[in-house]
Amino acid sequence: MCIGISLFLLIASGFSQTKEITLEDIWQKCVFYPQGLPGFTPMPNGDYYSVQNKEEIASYSFSTGEKQAGILTNYNLILASDNLIKLKDIDIYQMDNSERYLLLGIDYESIYRRSYKAFFYIYDLKEKKVFPLSDTTKGKQSFADFSPDCSKIAFVRDNNLFVKDLVSKQETAVTTDGKFNHVLNGIADWVYEEELDMSQAFTWSPDGKHLAYLRFDETRVKEFSMVMWGELYPESYRYKYPKAGEDNSLVDVFIYQVDNAQHTKVDMGDNSNSYIPRLYWLPNAAELVILKMNRHQNKLEFFAYNLLTTTKRLIYTDENSAWLDVTNEYHFLKDNNSMIVTSERNGYNHIYKVTFSGKPTPLTSGSWEVAQVCAVDESNEYIYYLSNESHALQRDLYRINFKGKNKKMLSNGKGWNSPTFNPTATYYSNMYSDANTPPVYTLHDNTGKELRVLQDNAALKERMKAYGFSQKELFTIPVNGGIELNAWMIKPKNFDTSKKYPVLMYVYGGPGSQEVNNSFFRGMDFAWYQMLAQKGYIVVCVDNRGTSGRGDSFKKCIYKQMGKYETEDQIAAAKYLQTLSYIDSNRVGIWGWSFGAYLSSLCIMKGNDVFKMAMAVAPVTNWRYYDNIYTERFLQTPQENPQGYDDNSPITHAAKLKGKYLLIHGTADDNVHFQNAMDLVSALNAAGIQYEQFFYPNKNHFIMGGNTRLHLYKILTDFVLENL
Question: Domain limits at 552?
């Protein structure tokens, strides 16, 4: 009897107690990883979407949610491929506009941040046959893309552009001069990919008769080398990386006529100090719109090149006193003489309707920002967009007409929304979350009406309760000059105002970023912060000046002096936290990754009387070492603005370091080079400063793979526990 009662009490006690979060739970078992919608894809025609699972790819009705048809079963794929391909092998799939062909990508392999390669196969849904896109012995392909007329696929292999005819199965080499570290055709170079969000550098004309593509001549760009460890004689990986103030690739625009293999080079003038960040076709297929941006990145010109007259005309210019951000917010209308764009020309990012060579007409306005144009429904003259009009920390979906009238909020005015529209803008899927609610995926019609829930992450919500997750609190911090900085805070679950707690500040703070928002952001780190809260720490994040959502004056005050105001704001925020009765003013630390590591390093050096410790993962330590497109956007060149580079370099301030400092870097970081860590270490050594360091062999900027993330966060956790 007593044994039974004791056992019952033990079980009941176990259910009532909060579970302890472990690093293994977070990074090895992925217990707190939110579920998404794998394989969800709006279909080209009709109001349907497709979903992939282990057994089939099937289509479903947006309006009813009912299954319409099985598109491809695992059985049929295995049969057609002679057991070569199974559905579980498919990393990418895409359907052509006619919905006859299914493009399947397997053995997906990342190159850099956005570029990739894979083996592609085409499944003919009519014939129930599968064939390779190209000879697999020649290597993997990148950016396989159907022509709009569904007759061909263009792709890149070994820096050359190819076209595959789906009927004749004939493959044609559009270019032949591609060579690694010399010439790239149809694929962007490293710096365009990283900083201009461009990896595929070709586009089909709407009628499928022409391919426009960029040719990158990297000859004059200097190489950077990284040692790859593991062999008896380690190998050196060399690639083109233009650092601040250095030469870029020479980029040319070509148009390829498919039926006669004729190439036309478009004369864009001097290309030695300018960028071609985007190519678009007008709906008439007779004109190619080419965007050209100056090296200072404060002037963006739109040129329309006419294939028939072989002439080009300037149709639109956007300028800014500081810098412009190239986006994907350019929508060209069917009249072939107007477009919908976003611009910061009046101090906040808003939507404009532009008649070519005419004055832009604002469709939205106010002291808030449009975050994204999600869809343009030209038939009904509606624009669907995200903005933070309801609150700077939120993203709501709105609809407005082409005259800037009849604005309507389609979301609920809370949290963070990320919609994906079908091609006709009649339906959309939406991912909603808030600071303490993991993503909820729903389907809606274009009035905003919710049709059904696709994924609610209910299991994760219950798990968060079981592990006693604390609420992330959103608040503001006053700093000098009457400025209020947005912030969030996570307190221990058993928080007691009479006690004093140590604080770990997390910072990113880079230009145009936003870490403080009402969304379930960086879920895995969120779980780590909850683990630290269980151990008695308060975790705080502050968005400094230079971050987004609050207009040009707040974001671009950092121009030519990047790092100055950002660091001042983080130090001021830490001093404010020290005034709170429940904060242990002697135990304030800071950490960050990449730009955040740059700031955390500067903070403990410039704020050596404020921060007890700092951790920096993959920091930039002098912007002279970073790529030119990103760095010159905010600082201009080192030749023009040497003080902007050196005055706020952690290397310059290394001798000021007093607290505990941990430096971590991957030796194969193609983005923020290991050179940054090495030169900071040299400066610290020269100043006689003690610090700790850890380096990950052959790991890139994300420091992932195998047990690497678990290992990394064990190091970070131990450093916090021992030094804060």
Answer: 466-655
CA distance 474 to 465: 20
Per-residue pLDDT, 15: 42
CATH number where 506 lies: 3.40.50.1820
DSSP-assigned states of every residue in 638-698: TTT-HHHHHTT-TTTTGGG--SEEEEEEETT-SSS-THHHHHHHHHHHHTT---EEEEETT
Please give the structure tokens belonging to residue 547: 């971050």
Interior/surface letters 235-257, b for 16+ CB within 10 angstroms, e for the rest: eeeebbbbbbbebbbebbbbbbe
Phi, psi of 548 (to 5 degrees): -100, 175
Residue after which a domain boundary falls, among 625, 655, 685: 655
Number of domains in the chain: 2
pLDDT in tens, 260-300: 999 999 999 999 999 999 999 999 999 999 999 999 999 99
Question: Is residue 357 one of the residues assigned to a domain?
Answer: no
- What pairs with residue 299 in β-bridges? 319
Q: Among candidates 440, 442, 445, which has minimal Cα distance to 453?
A: 442
Q: CA dist 435 to 52, 240, 432, 503, 538, Å?
A: 30, 40, 11, 20, 16
526 pLDDT above the threshold of 70: yes
Residue 197 near residue 674 (C-beta atoms within 8 A): no
Q: Looking at the domain assignment, is residue 22 inside a domain?
A: no
Token pair listed for 73: 């079963």
Q: Which of 655, 677, 712 is the last residue of a domain?
A: 655
174: in domain: no
Q: Which residues of 284-320 are buried (b: 16+ CB within 10 A; e: fewer)?
A: bbbbbbbbbbebbbbbbbbbbbebeeeebeebbebeb
| CA 239/CA 213 separation, integer angstroms | 22
Average pLDDT, the chain: 95
Would strands 350-355 and 152-157 be described as parallel, antiparallel, or unpaired?
unpaired
pLDDT at 54: 86
For residue 534, the Cα-to-chain-centroid distance in whole angstroms is 31
pLDDT at 10: 36
Specify the pLDDT at position 480. Answer: 87
User: Average pLDDT, stretch 615-622?
Assistant: 98
Question: Does residue 579 sit within a domain?
Answer: yes
